[in-house]
């Protein structure tokens, strides 16, 4: 099994990285070790404001967050799709500054919405001061009640925001470059939330 320890502080001495591989016969091979140069490591541009912990990906920060946390994004382009299913805030460093908003971009792949708000657990979620891009869907609100404030949703060839049943988002001072769509609007015969406690 791979090592499961998370190393947050590297030794100040010379540090090397290698990979150990075992085959089915029990033979062990070590790949040629390479030196780690701390100056070559990519900066960690995502920060949890409560814990001070930094991350390389927004999704990692969300997975490690607690309800009510604020995830701060340095100005950069983030190539990922994220899902917010608990009350937390994902924000640029200065949501009221149009230059910072323009420089803090979450660019998702067209395999799904760039930002998905889903479930009643996301009540109280906020997206603030970000540029959201995608060729398909920028933001999807499914059974969710988020606040989207001072954001630019830039999807001229796709859908800026799609709304599903149970949606109630609050849009404050946002720019939508692309149409909105109410999805899932076919008539239902039955709909089960699957949120029973018994």
**Proportion of residues in extended strands:** 25-35%
Silhouette: globular
Number of strands: 21
Individual helix count: 2
Helix content: under 10%
Strand adjacency order, main sheet: 6-5-7-10-13-16-19
Helix-and-strand structural type: mainly beta
Report the order of strands and helices. EEEEEEHEEEEHEEEEEEEEEEE
Rg computed from alpha carbons, rounded to a whole number of angstroms: 21 Å
The span between the termini is 38 Å
Poorly predicted regions: none
Mean pLDDT: 86
- Major sheet details: 7 strands, mixed
Report on this structure:
The chain has 198 residues and is mostly beta strands. The chain has 2 helices and 21 strands. It has helices spanning 58-64, 98-103; strands at residues 16-17, 20-22, 28-30, 34-35, 46-48, 54-55, 70-73, 76-78, 82-84, 89-92, 104-107, 115-118, 126-128, 131-133, 137-142, 147-149, 152-154, 159-163, 170-172, 175-177, 180-182. Strands 6-5-7-10-13-16-19 form a 7-stranded mixed sheet. Strands 8-11-14-17-20 form a 5-stranded parallel sheet. Strands 9-12-15-18-21 form a 5-stranded parallel sheet. Strand 5 (46-48) and strand 6 form a beta hairpin. The two termini are 38 Å apart.
